[in-house]
Please model this.
Amino acid sequence: MIINDNDKISSFQCFVLFVSVMIGIGIMFMPASVAKTAEQNGWVAVLLGGMLSFTVFLLISKITMSNPDVTFIELLNNAFGKILGIFFSLVYVLYFIIFSAFETRLIAETAKEFLFNLTPNEVLIITFLLTCAYISRYGIEVIARICEILMPGIVVIIVILSFFVYQRLDFSNLLPVLNIPYVKLIKGIGKTIFSFLGFEVFLFFMPYIRRKDKLIKSALFGFLVTVLLYEVIIIFATADFGAKEMQTMIWPTLNLFRDVTVLEVVIERPESIIVALWMITTYTTEIIFLMTTGLILARIFNTKEHSFFVFSQLPLIYVLSLIPQNISETQKFMDYFSYYFATFVVLFLPLVTYTVLSIKKKVKKT
Amino acid sequence: MKSKRRTFLAILLVFLAFFLSGCWDRVEIEDRGYILALGVDKYDPSDLNKYESSEYIDLDRKTQKFSSEQQKPDIKTDQKGIDPQTKRKVKPPLPSSKNEYKFAVTVLFPNLRTIGKDSKPDEQMRFLFVTSTNNVVGVRNYLEREINKRLYYGYLKVVVLGRDLVEEPGYVREVLDGLNREGDIPQNTFLLVSETTARDVLNTMPLVQPVTGIHLFEISKNASIYGRIIDTPLSEVVNNFINSNCAVISRVEPGIETLKVSGAAVFKNFRFVGWLDEKQLQVYKLLMGKAKHTFIDDLKYKSTHVPFITTEIQTKKKIKSEKGRLKIVYNLRIEGEVIEFVFKSGYKVLDDPMRKYIQNELNNIIKKRANELIYLLKYRYNADVLGIGDFISKRRAKDWKKLKKNWDDELKKIDIEVIPDVRLRRSGTIY
Model:
């Protein structure tokens, strides 16, 4: 597959892609699930979770940099042979499809709770998926440009709204610092992982990046922005509600921004704005996932275009997204997903591939 | 190939247009009834009889407002307690043979048409409905049988709890859960406890602002500025109940044509345990660091009262351990001005013997009042509404682990010292 030059992304676009793909629906309830284990030290867990994810990303980039002109699919093929390689590539396809299904279900749940009480879930899901698929048919550069337009606006609006939240915060709710057993803190880190996942799409973007030497730098900034935004949200939520109250909430982030009143009349009850903003962040995450799946399938079947595969996965995502009974079951599945499946796909499989590849090279040399 | 693509796109567009044709659940603004106030009472059939007595109906008629040209004093209320002039329903539904209801919920929402240009002068400004139910927030489903509006909680301003209701911890918990769970209800809705019933409060039409919900909301909002009222938004009350099972909710006194917010109710384990009066509340706000301004007028010099207005208040809490016992020290730094004295009295308020005297006396007054309040809260109510347990758990997590098992008794053992430091800065434009 030939990659033409206008389908390559600059290092700034890389940074934007990092932020857009990581900030998804996870942050809507992440403060609550972290507070259940790490209590008022959630912000430490988020910091450590971000550092952990960045370390994993460094490993991934190290592995893909070993042959930067091909995607991870070719590396898998080289390492395990054609049949096993395709099998593992399909595992990645499954991974992204399940991930998309989670995002879809959760955005539908949020929209139903706060915006469209009477609209059926199915309609919300279908409209969301079709809108995402429409843009995902285009190449990586178009998507990066879309994210370039959408991402800064979202971050800026969230930061502005945070100023209006600030006046009612009580930072003594963050005390005492680190008085919990370390096991609980580590469990808390585990809860943050889902919110950080998404950076693994760069396993498949390597050939599209113009300046490969600057990838680590843009990744660093991408992680920094994400971690900072998450930190602002989790510290504000803890300071506003306190760890005990936050544990009882389903959507702490939404509750945090919901009762912002700006000058009595200018903005009252901005929850529809917030839900819409989060729909956009989830939208950017989802389009990247849909496109990645399309790219992987295009590589497997060796076709020029990936646009057909984008639509072919939608029915599967739709069906999967309707499986969980309710939001708490969704969160339970998400935990299993991020603990086992994500660890296998993001950390374990690349590492094994790298080991096999390096052994094979050694075999060839001798 | 190209034509296929176009057909596909056309189908996609039609499909999207089909779904994107607008929200399914949009409601026009005229069709909504914005609930501004919610009153919750314990359902008590014997109490309801009161609302059928002619005495009450007379009283109720006196409180009605009419514009001068519309004044018709000889209105007769019909037997069902519905006033034919205003169609106000003041009587809750009659008790049935099985009185299974838990709550009597009063809902108040304004008439949006009176705001518009083509409003008629005789139109009533607000609607009041009373229903007996077993669930508080779900009451709108029952009310929508008789009201042609879609009731909406999004702009709820105040929730008034009746005096009878707050005696029952189970009922208070049910109400709180409903308010906290419903996504539409803003978390900055103010909670109030009525001195009598919540229905009485909402039935009153205050003179200046006849829509009771807005009236109470605006008074509570001013609370952060003036010293005699406390604002108790839902989020804070819920947070206090979660953290310490205790809370303070401000009190409202219904009158004939006025509603007064003053004092507060103290809750322990979701049960009402007693009132705080205005003066106790002032000190409570000082200790909680909630007071921005306060007004102390107990100071007397010879036969003259010397009122003192504060301009700046800083509250600092410290925790010490003395002989194995924990001691909480409140450092209050209060700056302010004397706004009245005697004309041509010869005393210079800002100069030294007088200034020292005023400062010392004020310190004593605040200290005395604080000690009375602390005694009341510690021994009589035994309610940790000052958030001492919460404070210890934050600063001394290890001590808290031992204390929290038996906190009700341990609270009595904890020393609380208040050290006020009043500074007289100004005295108006003359000495």
